[in-house]
C-alpha cells in the first residue's frame, strides 16, 4: 500500500446548548502515519466520539483541517461536501463500530462482499464478483474465520462478529481505519484476542488508525496514546510503550 497519514490540525467542533454552545473538540491536533495506531482514552462525554465522527467525515468541524494522505493524493476531510464525504468513506475510510451492526440475513463472507458494491451499479460482471469473493475470503482467513464464512451473525460468537466487523472495514483497502471501543462487549480473553488482531491487521494493511478505548490494559502496545478531557487532546505520558 502507498504511504498514508492522517493529520488533524487545530480542529474545533461545537454543538448548540440552549442559548450557548458546548465545545466538543477544543483545537485538537494529532498525526498518525500509515501502519501506526493512536489510542485515545478519556471519560465518557469528553469528545472521543466527536473526534472519530469528524475524522470519519460524519460531522464537519467548525474550524481546522483534517488531512488524509492516500494513494491518490491528500484531501482535507473538513471541506468535503456530503456526497464527496460519502464517496471517500466508501473508498478510503474503514470504520469499526463498537457494535458490529452486521446484517442478520447475510453470511460472514456476504457482509464483506456487500461493501464492494456500495455506490456501484446493480449489475456486477462475473469476473468482478469472483474477485470480490476471493478478497473477502482472504480477509476472513486473515481474521481467523475462513471456516465460518457461511454462517450468519446469529450463529457467531460476540468475538467472531467483531472479527467480521474488522474484516469488513478492511474490504476497500482504507487509508484510514477508525475503531470505536472494539472490546467493550467482550470478556478479557476475547478482548485481548481482538487487540492482537487489530495490531496485526494494521501492520499488514498499513492504514493510519485511531482506536478509542476505555481499556488501558493494552495501551503500552500502541504507537501513541492520547487522553481527551473536555474536548482537549493531549499525549498521555503515563504510558510506557513497547510498540
Radius of gyration, CA atoms, in whole angstroms:
18 Å
Number of E-state strands: 10
Number of helical segments with 4 or more residues = 6
Distance between the termini: 21 Å
What does this molecule look like?
By secondary structure, the chain is an alpha/beta fold. The protein has a single domain (5-235), classed as Rossmann fold (3-Layer(aba) Sandwich). It has 6 helices and 10 strands. The strands form 2 sheets. It has a 6-stranded mixed beta sheet with strand order 6-7-8-3-9-10. It starts with a strand and ends in an 8-residue tail after the last strand.
Provide keyphrases for this structure.
Rossmann fold; four-stranded antiparallel sheet; globular; 6 helices; alpha/beta; 243 residues; six-stranded mixed sheet; 10 strands
Write the layout of secondary structure elements.
Layout: E1 5-17, E2 20-33, E3 37-41, H1 48-55, E4 63-70, E5 73-76, H2 82-92, E6 93-96, H3 108-113, H4 126-142, H5 158-169, E7 176-180, H6 188-205, E8 208-212, E9 224-229, E10 232-235
Helix pairs in contact: 4-5, 5-6
